[in-house]
Amino acid sequence: MSGACERCLRRARLIAQLAPRITGMLARGRRVPGLLALSEQDLIAAAGGRHKDLVRERLASFDPDAERRDLEAAGVWAVCRHGPAYPAQLLDLPDPPAALFGIGAPELLELVADGPAVAVVGTRRPSPYGTEVAYALGRGLGAAGVPVVSGLALGIDATAHRGCLDGHGAPLAVLARGPEYAYPRRHRKLHEQVSQQGAVVSELPPGTAAERWSFPARNRIMAGLARLTLVVEAADPSGSLITAEFARDLGRGVAAVPGRVTARMAEGTNGLLRDGAVPVTSTEDVLDELYGVGMRPPPPGGTRPAPPAEAGMRLVLDAVEAGSSVDEIVARTRASASEVRVALARLEADGHVVRGALGGWERAAM
Amino acid sequence: MLASISTFALEGVRSHPVTVEVDVRRGLPAFTLVGLPDRAVRESRERVRAAVQNSGLEFPLMRITVNLAPAHVRKAGPGFDLAIAVGVLVASRQVRPESLDSTALCGELSLSGELRSVRGALAAALGARDLALGRLIVPPGNGGEAALVAGVEVIGARSLGEIAGVLRGEQMPVPATPETGDPDPRGGPDLLDVRGQEDAKRALEIAAAGGHNLLMVGPPGVGKTMLARRLPGLLPPPDLEEALEITQMHSAAGLAAGRLIRDRPFRAPHHTISAQGLVGGGAVPRPGEITLAHRGVLFLDELPEFGRSALDALRQPLEEGRVEIMRGQRTLEFPANAILVAACNRCPCGRPADSCRCGANERDRYLRRLSGPLLDRLDLVCDVRPVPPVQLVDEEPSGPPSAIVRERVAAARERQRARLAGTPARCNGDMDGRLTRLTVSLRPEVATGLTRGRESGALSGRGHDRVLRVARTIADLAARGDVASEDVDEALSYRFDGWERMAA
Ligand SMILES: Nc1ncnc2c1ncn2[C@@H]1O[C@H](COP(=O)(O)OP(=O)(O)O)[C@@H](O)[C@H]1O
Ligand SMILES: [Mg+2]
Fold this sequence. Notes:
The complex is a heterodimer of chains A (366) and B (504).
Chain A: H1 6-27, H2 40-47, H3 52-60, H4 64-74, E1 77-80, E2 99-104, H5 107-114, E3 118-122, H6 128-143, E4 148-150, H7 156-166, E5 171-174, H8 188-197, E6 199-202, H9 214-225, E7 228-232, H10 239-249, E8 253-256, H11 267-274, E9 278-279, H12 283-291, H13 311-321, H14 326-333, H15 337-349, E10 353-355, E11 361-363
Parallel strand pairs in A: 3-4, 3-7, 4-5, 5-6, 7-8, 8-9
Antiparallel strand pairs in A: 1-2, 2-6, 10-11
Helix pairs in contact in A: 1-2, 6-7, 6-12, 7-8, 9-10, 13-14, 13-15
Chain B: E1 2-11, E2 14-25, E3 30-34, H1 39-54, E4 63-69, H2 81-91, E5 103-105, E6 108-109, E7 115-116, H3 121-130, E8 135-138, H4 140-146, E9 153-156, H5 160-167, H6 198-210, E10 214-217, H7 224-229, H8 240-252, E11 266-267, H9 275-279, E12 280-281, E13 286-287, H10 289-292, E14 297-300, H11 308-313, H12 315-320, E15 322-327, E16 330-335, E17 339-344, H13 360-368, H14 373-376, E18 380-383, H15 389-393, H16 402-419, H17 433-439, H18 444-455, H19 463-477, H20 485-494, H21 499-502
Helix pairs in contact in B: 1-2, 3-4, 6-16, 6-19, 18-20, 19-20
The structure holds adenosine-5'-diphosphate and magnesium ion (MG).
């Protein structure tokens, strides 16, 4: 682990100290474009308020060794923009985070730096359709070895990561507060699973609470890390659209899942599509966008399962892909319900299909 | 003089022998009742006094003490009236004690001396048989039910006066004849009525064959209730022993209608039911719905709408096939071996996925109510989708009628009975983990299917035994001696262990 330099640790600590004050400024209606890009002294001048001197004093007495010891005690690693482990694509941001604090596998940052990662974001209140799609895409990307970046928020964020976990993929969560603490609390278990199978990072050191401004700030990091930002259901306006805007400003790809024109949760995504975002209806669409149509990266670790040899099994697989129920497959193949279920269980064991909604089946995204 | 009369207290669904001791002696006229009687029993003094007098008999103006023994058994209800009244007659020398040798009596008295039916007469007759009491006198409405028990002469008497006549030898007793009833001649609704739904029908057949619990998931109107109602008709009719058990449960709840129940029960309580209503209990413990569904089907529609405590209370009975109720130092046991069929939507509004407006939180909460140990006991999870309207109106009925499926189920159950002879289990669904592993062994090449199921995440460790049981049933339906890999695969396809993930 390469660690972070003193300057960057100090800057992160300063932002953590000022965090509640920045919220206060924004609440009073002041806008601070590029606030996070300011130098330390300018930051203090802008956000220090009446306590500027106190803040300066604390900054002067910053002890990097104590800070490193604290990190170690909290089980948190750090990388900074002066170190080799820092994902270089973040430097495209006008205000790149000085450091990233993280738990879980630091190697994941290298994977994200080397290959394309996809940010999957969306509403906290998805429809069942949104949930289903987010899960399938998360799982498909995970299985294809594409790191899935998300914010661990309720709804789409969490579902995409659950899919990624189930697809044995690499989830990378970016938090709006210190990385060691599961936020929201309902996602304690997910937070733990993501940190075990992937990593959880933040520009804020451990112990820093989330502030209102730190959510859009976190969104810029997600957009900065990912090659493509994919929005699954979002109202307009919404945090997910902010992430998409960051991605667009960085010249990164923006993709969206089409929704029903009458659904409020599709206004944001359909708006993105109207403005030229890439329409995504399957994992294949995302992979086409990342690697070129029909082109695929070498399979991660193992190999893709070979298509089933038996014609009957292929028939069942095709039917699952078309979204058919067991009964529809029965009608199409003239097999019995019992035979169809045997085939489904075998296709599942071979990794061709997965269980979707309660008791249903879908084609495993590859 | 002291009289001693045999009767029975109903404890849950079983009877407990009670001796009514009546002592009549000179003194100020008084009528006291001791031995843990409840209010209805204490009130029986007034009924007994009036009934005796209105039957042309003499109520002694003396000091009468009635003791109900043993004292620790809680006596509830009016069923002791008859024994107390006859005790008074014996103690006041109006009836000879020898006339009551090896005779027990149960019944409620009206003020005029008529006998009224009581709950649990069948349990009392079973108790009389177990104590080798040769004769049981009950109200006429209970005669047909009590006479089902062989080895006990049951007399259904209309009034206290008639009983006194019989005991004095002035009148011939009229033995009650067993009311064996008839199975529902229509045989219940038929599977033929359900168009399509091949997958759900297969799941029903497996549930019937092995006694496995089933969950159907799907939007309203797809036929979940319709399918569930057809499950009792897929089971072989109860044999005499089972019919007696079913009748005993209903009799204890006062629902037996005085005759043998020959049909498998189908109980479908509303989701507002309390835990006590579902599994039984109360100050005077009564059987709950799951006991009334014993040897039949318990259908819980809108499963997540049931109260948390009601769903939690179901866990033990589902696992063990019986309910245990603590009563002070004693534990009452209610048989509760029913097939649970549950139905639910995918979300609280129940609309199809593209028009649903439920938020993540609501859906989360809806499914979370289900998660956990209860779901673990649902062996078969089946996704039920709408049948296309054309198929509903146009097509000829598809699939076999209930009678054909019932034959296959009966054959599969016969195989299980033979294999499980000498164990407490009758069908695969009754087997506990140990018995499952003892009786279901997989050839190595078949066992790999299960291992792969676990590796692919389809199966949790807990689900392993349950899949084995269902696989055994599928093999029994196919008349296979050994479980084949397709049996394991099909069983796996019904197992759903992804609840936590669903609550995304
Ligand atoms: N597969 C089917 N075949 C025939 N009738 C059906 C079928 N599905 C639904 N119906 C009709 O629709 C009605 C409602 O079905 P029901 O069993 O109450 O659905 P659910 O319990 O799933 O809400 C039934 O009474 C029946 O008339
Ligand atoms: Mg219904």
